[in-house]
Amino acid sequence: MAATSHHTRRPLWLRMVGRDPREPHRAATPLELLFDLCFVVAVAQAAARLHHALSEAHAGTGVLGYAMVFFAIWWAWMNFTWFASAYDTDDVVYRLLILMQILGVLILAAGVPRAFEERDFGLVTLGYAVMRVALIALWVRAACEHPEGRRCALRYAIGISVVQVGWILRLTLPEQIGFFAFFVLVAAELAVPVFAERARQTTWHPHHIAERYGLFAIIVLGESILAATLAIQSGLDRGIATAALLSVAFSGAVIVFAMWWLYFSQPAHLLLSSNKTAFPWGYGHYFIFSSTAALGAGLSVAVDYDTHEAHIGAFAAGAAVAVPVVVFLASLWLVHVRPHRPGGLVNGAYLAGMALVLVTPFTPLPLPLPLPLPLIAVVMALLAVASQSPWPWRARQPRAVGGGRQAGASRG
Question: Is residue 7 part of a domain?
Answer without folding.
Answer: no
